[in-house]
């Protein structure tokens, strides 16, 4: 069964550094999402992306964050200058059509030191 | 604004017991989707079910069943004859239908521990 792939599984970064989290959505999917989960807390929506542009973003998704679909397969989340509070699990998700269930990757655990 | 409340934070049962996980939601949308996801200790999110607000029929899938009651804005999840492998965090989630409404709003999750 096709799946969403995220790399790396764990990223350790110094505070203030830029980090790029990578996702390969399911190949025929058109809608892409990023969510984050701070340890022990609920999963929170960050941003949705369709047709090469952001559809919606949450208040968490400030100017430090950006998303890109640089080619036909990857979907990336960049955090420009990381802060301690960015430490979390970041999940990528994709869906094939509007209103289809979102399929999640296994997540990238980001640890900011 | 959408909101999902999972009032239970932790539940512990002995194997083979039945357990019900509660979910209450708030939305101004007239049409919406409700979901349950499972997060095992390994951390991934596993999709379990999606239910359209138009469809209030209860659903059963093996040991899992879901009770959707629009009148009380609830979407409860029952595991029958629980097993140790059911130990996980379970999230209820809500989304609108279409376009920018399709983001998921999650509850805080319920940690289920099934003891042998």
Can I get a quick summary?
The complex is a heterodimer of chains A (113) and B (116). By secondary structure, chain A is mainly β.
Word description of this protein:
The complex is a heterodimer of chains A (113) and B (116). Chain A starts with a strand and ends with a strand. Chain A contains no helices and eleven strands. Chain A has strands at 5-7, 10-13, 19-24, 31-37, 43-50, 53-57, 65-68, 75-79, 88-95, 103-104, 108-112. In chain A, the strands form two sheets. In chain A, strands 2, 4, 5, 6, 9, 10 and 11 form a seven-stranded mixed beta sheet that branches. A four-stranded antiparallel beta sheet of chain A has the order 1-3-8-7, with no helix packed on it. Chain B is mainly β. Chain B contains no helices and twelve strands. In chain B, strands 2, 5, 6, 10, 11 and 12 form a six-stranded mixed beta sheet that branches. A four-stranded antiparallel beta sheet of chain B has the order 3-9-8-7, with no helix packed on it. In chain B, a hairpin with a 2-residue loop joins strand 7 and strand 8. Chain B is globular, with a radius of gyration of 14 Å. The chains are: A mainly beta (113), B mainly beta (116). The A-B interface holds A 31, 33, 35, 41-45, 48, 55-56, 58, 89, 91, 95, 98-99, 101-107, 109 and B 33, 35, 37, 42-47, 50, 91, 93, 97-100, 102-109.
User: Helical stretch count of chain A?
Assistant: 0
- Secondary-structure element sequence of chain A? EEEEEEEEEEE
DSSP helix fraction of chain A: under 10%
Q: Which protein chains make the most extensive interface, counting residues with beta carbons within 8 Å of the other chain's beta carbons?
A: A-B, 25 and 24 residues
Low-confidence segments of chain B, given as residue ranges, are none
Largest sheet of chain B: 6 strands, mixed
Question: Strand share of the residues of chain B?
Answer: over 45%
The chain-level mean pLDDT of chain B equals 93
Helix content of chain B: under 10%
User: Distance between termini of chain A?
Assistant: 36 Å
